[in-house]
Design a protein that fits this description.
The complex is a heterodimer of chains A (232) and B (430). Chain A has 232 residues and is an alpha+beta fold. Chain A is built from 5 helices and 16 strands. Helices cover 17% and strands 37% of the residues of chain A. In chain A, strand 5 and strand 6 form a beta hairpin. The longest helix of chain A is centred in the first third of the chain and has 13 residues. The two termini of chain A are 19 Å apart. In chain B, the strands form 3 sheets. A 6-stranded antiparallel sheet of chain B has the order 3-2-1-4-5-6. A 5-stranded mixed beta barrel of chain B has the order 7-14-15-17-19. Chain B is built from 8 helices and 19 strands. With 430 residues, chain B is of the alpha+beta class. Helices cover 20% and strands 40% of the residues of chain B. The N and C termini of chain B lie far apart (57 Å). Classes of the chains: A alpha+beta (232), B alpha+beta (430). At the A-B interface, helix 2, strand 9, strand 10 and strand 11 of A face strand 4, strand 15 and strand 17 of B.
Chain lengths: 232, 430
């Protein structure tokens, strides 16, 4: 099914499906589908994904938990995997990037974490995305999700959606999930809209929770797997 | 460690300023090791303390907690100020001492937080994983011991000791992952079996095939079943959710809510339950609670606050969320009773794990989750692993027609669960 993701859900995809898989500690463990893929075309040329702790958003940090300078990381540039997210421990072991992504709760050891992660804007309007979708579904809002970065599979639940018929939004649907393979979905992104929105949230990893934000513009994805209980 | 007379001081100081005071003090030690690939990348020995105070004044309830029990005066002050902000409610008193608390104790003196023991657990999991051609990704092992004291201004004074052993291992074979864990209050988990199962899942899930979209009988492992229950069915049995309009089971007491073959029982004397206990988080003696009996809903679970607020009786289901955590309605050891059978004898999809169960709609029970480590079974044998598929449905409705429970059970959080066969479930193929 063709799917248009709203900025909140597309942002969750950027964080869960791509961001976690780009954390170099997971790459080092061998539990990331992005292991060994630096320089490869892992998504469509429309897709650029960035993590930036310097943005004045909920995941802002002036310096990381190891004292390293923070800076913007282009994880995926025009579909090509460019960099992992690193700490001082992972950079020498894995390479491809810079330090500055170590975060920790008080009294806990630092781990590689995201900060403000987003899919960069494109140059289409939201109406153009829905028009190009033709037959599919617009998914809005996020009720959370989960990813298996080693297997390269994700599942997210939208708060609600609208069926798209003949290029227009029609009936409303609820409790719809999007499930997919990370790399196939990245290749399936066909259009990105012009306006990006960031959403604040919390990310849990290794027993620690840190504030983050994620964001995106509206995104058109071809051939996604959409699930629901099918009830009225 | 905080001395017992400190508890007396807190109660005395609290009673001068509130109608009632409750003191919950937890102290513990633990040793943890984390594995990255085949190296112990992190080792931690820690001593924990947590003090949680609850005060009631004019029906206004205030709580505060601290990780530094020596700073109890500031904690008490915070609890009193929090009570001043709270809305008053009906309140008929904290529990006093009871005559009978039962004799079950989930403490094993063989569970000693010792680094050598934890190292053996980690190495045992590694050895078990060697039986299959997989890579170890990560793992962890932990041994903990706790001492808990609960006292209140009505003369209640209870002490207990608890022990906890937990371990888990994640493995990968190319793009197939496997995760297995074990939890117990006794030193009775075989690390080799945990490691072997984690490796087995990754190895046997490799090379999966797609299946067509359709209706299938599905057998959920205790892990998969427990995750789906936790999102909506179990919360729907909480009295607080019933009375605040957040339970689909409200108004259904006496009615059939699932297959008549099934009974849901919270059994705080279950010898396997890691949450089994003699008294609940606020000192009420616990008892076996038959929530659903042969498919018919019999009762909901309550703590004191919710019971007083809505004119009901506590069922002894106050549960504290970790050391120093607040009180909420929960279950001590949820179990499922029903006919035991060879539930994989007939064709079905066996699902070891699911991805995204926590996104279940907590009110309606609608869910759609990705399957993990799923296998198509034909003629009682696994024919092939399922590469990728979704299971979609409704948690309340899927319990309407079941096909039996497995003989084996597993500790899954606050539950001890079997595998369960569900009929006619919707699978979305790739």
């Amino acid at each position: 099914m063709n799917v248009v993701l709203d900025p909140e859900l597309a942002g969750v995809f950027a964080h869960e499906a791509v961001g976690h898989a780009s954390e170099a500690d997971l790459v080092h463990e061998g539990s990331s589908v992005l292991r060994g893929k630096i320089g490869e075309q892992i998504g469509s040329g429309i897709v650029t994904i960035v993590d930036d702790p310097t943005l004045p958003e909920f995941g802002f940090e002036p310096v990381d938990a190891e004292g390293s300078r923070v800076e913007r990381t282009i994880i995926v540039e025009k579909g090509v995997l460019t960099s992992y997210l690193h700490s001082r421990e992972t950079l020498p072991a894995v390479g491809f990037g810079h330090t500055g992504n170590a975060r920790a709760m008080p009294g806990e050891p630092p781990q590689v974490r995201m900060s403000n992660t987003y899919i960069a804007e494109g140059d289409s309007t939201t109406e153009e995305l829905i028009g190009e979708c033709r037959e599919g579904i617009l998914l809005c809002g996020s009720r959370g999700g989960q990813v298996d970065p080693g297997r390269g599979v994700f599942q997210f639940n939208a708060e609600y959606g609208y069926l798209i018929e003949h290029g227009e939004c029609r009936g409303m649907v609820r409790d719809v999930s999007l499930s997919g393979e990370i790399l196939a979905t990245l290749h399936g992104i066909e259009l990105c809209a012009k306006k990006r929105k960031m959403h604040a949230g919390y990310c849990g990893k290794g027993g620690q929770t840190v504030p983050v934000s994620d964001g995106a513009p509206h995104v058109l994805v071809r051939d996604a797997v959409v699930g629901g209980s099918g009830h009225d | 460690m905080v001395a017992v007379d400190t508890i007396e001081k807190i109660l005395t100081a609290g009673e001068r300023q509130a109608d009632e005071v409750e003191v919950y003090l937890a102290t513990g030690t633990s040793v943890t090791a984390r594995l990255r690939k085949r190296e112990i990348s992190y080792a931690l020995g820690s001593e924990h303390q947590a003090l949680s105070l609850r005060v009631i004044r004019g029906g206004r309830i205030g709580v505060s907690s601290t990780g530094n029990p020596q700073a109890w005066e500031a904690c008490l002050d915070a609890a009193l100020r929090s009570a001043a902000l709270a809305a008053p409610q009906e309140w008929d008193g904290l529990p006093g001492p009871a005559e009978n608390y039962g004799d079950f104790v989930n403490f094993d003196e063989n569970v000693v937080p010792d680094p050598d023991r934890v190292r053996e657990m980690v190495r045992g999991m590694e050895e078990g994983a060697c039986r299959y051609p997989v890579e170890i990704v990560s793992g962890s092992a932990e041994i903990s011991q706790y001492r808990i004291v609960l006292a209140n201004s009505r003369g209640l004074y209870r002490e207990d000791r608890e022990s906890l052993v937990s371990m888990g291992l994640e493995t990968i074979r190319e793009q197939s992952t496997g995760y297995e864990y074990g939890t117990s209050w006794k030193m009775d988990i075989d690390p080799g079996s945990v490691g072997e199962k984690a490796a087995f899942l990754a190895a046997t899930s490799h090379g999966g095939k797609d299946i067509p979209t359709g209706t299938y009988d599905v057998v959920l492992s205790p892990d998969a079943f427990g995750q789906l229950m936790a999102g909506s069915f179990l919360p729907a049995l909480s009295g607080r959710n019933v009375h605040t309009g957040r339970s689909r089971l409200a108004h259904l007491i006496g009615q059939e809510v699932c297959d008549p073959a099934l009974s849901f029982i919270d059994d705080p004397s279950n010898t396997r339950g890691i949450g089994s206990c003699r008294w609940d988080g606020e000192g009420t003696p616990t008892r076996t609670l038959h929530l659903v009996e042969k498919g018919v809903l019999r009762c909901f679970a309550y703590d004191l606050k919710t019971a007083y607020q809505y004119g009901c009786m506590t069922t002894g289901n106050a549960v504290r969320s970790g050391m120093g955590g607040g009180i909420a309605i929960g279950f001590h050891c949820m179990t499922l009773d029903g006919p035991r059978d060879e539930i994989l004898e007939k064709d079905a999809i066996f699902v070891h794990d699911v991805v995204g169960a926590h996104t279940t709609n907590p009110l309606t029970g609608d869910f759609s989750v990705e399957l993990a480590n799923a296998y198509l079974y034909r003629g009682g044998n696994p024919e092939y692993p399922v590469r990728k598929a979704m299971l979609a449905g409704n948690v309340f409705e899927m319990l309407g027609e079941t096909g039996g429970l497995s003989g084996e059970e597993k500790v899954v959080g606050c539950c001890v669960l079997p595998s369960i066969r569900l009929k006619n479930q919707k699978i979305i193929g790739n």
